[in-house]
Amino acid sequence: MSPTIAILGGTGPAGTGLALRWARAGESIIIGSRSAQRARDAAAKIADKLGSAAIVTGDSNANACAASDLLALTVPFEGQAALLKELKPSLKPGSILIDATVPLASGVGGRASRTLGVWQGSAAQQAAELVPKGVTVVAAFQNCSADVMNGDGPVECDVIVCSEDPAATQMVCDLAAKIPGVRAIDGGKLENARIVEQITALLIGLNIRHKGHGGIRITGLPPTSYRSSK
Amino acid sequence: MSPTIAILGGTGPAGTGLALRWARAGESIIIGSRSAQRARDAAAKIADKLGSAAIVTGDSNANACAASDLLALTVPFEGQAALLKELKPSLKPGSILIDATVPLASGVGGRASRTLGVWQGSAAQQAAELVPKGVTVVAAFQNCSADVMNGDGPVECDVIVCSEDPAATQMVCDLAAKIPGVRAIDGGKLENARIVEQITALLIGLNIRHKGHGGIRITGLPPTSYRSSK
Prior knowledge:
Largest sheet of chain A: 6 strands, parallel
Strand order of the largest sheet of chain A: 3-2-1-4-5-6
Distance between the termini of chain A: 17 Å
Structural class of chain A: alpha/beta
Order of helices and strands of chain A: EHEHEHEHEHEHEHEHEE
Oligomer: homodimer
């Protein structure tokens, strides 16, 4: 088991999906939210679903952040920078922050099938600029359908993991591979999140057009490139 | 069988891959090149491989273009605009131009795992601006590994087809589905090629890192969304 994972801004569908999947895999989870009560409610719902063995609690974002050095950020893009600035005092050097943010144009009233340009190149790189020194941002999980993550079936999606720290990338690959169906792939440097984030907008466009819950698979890499639960 | 397909700038690996796959499927192909002799040589190589039933010839780009109203453009990004301007007099209204161009940074001495910003949003949209009125640009095939396309095995890659004309998109989906392993997906408007083009750079980065020949699959769409040969 990994250390407790704090899922910040974790009461939305992206956050509860990760919480559900990791709690089911036996990980200890704190959901964080602006409202501690809302976080506790979301945690209770997951605990109800999974039974007494699940370790899922809820708290304010700041408390959740202070309680862990393995964090996942699952807010919409328009809330990302503000939350990171607010949490700066609670982010400990040595922490790993998994960032799943996608700069969808829907954040400013546009279409979710389009993206915004981010000055730093990607939402993940914006996060890296905003966290205190010593906190490693790892981009992952942007392409996993929240609907599928909140369900019970396998997640037919590869998770491309990008960061500047190969050890952090490996740790997040291991965590991703605990989700049935997911295959984790080392995607190299954090800047590559630029493309991975864009793919989410493409998938949303395909979902609208074809009425599906799209994900991606990368084909053609050697078997050792993929980390999965089987 | 479709009308003859002219593959412009078709002596590179992207062009010969398409020519080989379509000729093998029984399509009639003209490879175009700046040098008609080089085009004939490339055509002869494919004909040698496929035997006498294959219909593959070579000619200058202008002659190939004039001989067909179903065109595929397979030049590196740095040659795309110049070739389209040069061919403008030969491009007939009503033609379909399949564009597989990706604005890789390697075109200006950078890395093939990074892209250039294109003013129009994508190489495909640049093509659409440069062709005469009445020519429909359809973006497709950007993500298929040239190495795999030039081989004999199935192409484990989905082809996301984007254009402003649903009938042209369907026609190109049908053509793509003739390649064993390929599944064609209607990707909506031409602007969505922005993201599809980026994916190529991501795949090239993964190929370098993992020593593979990456492709993509889109999961989670209804079966009717995919067009394939089986």
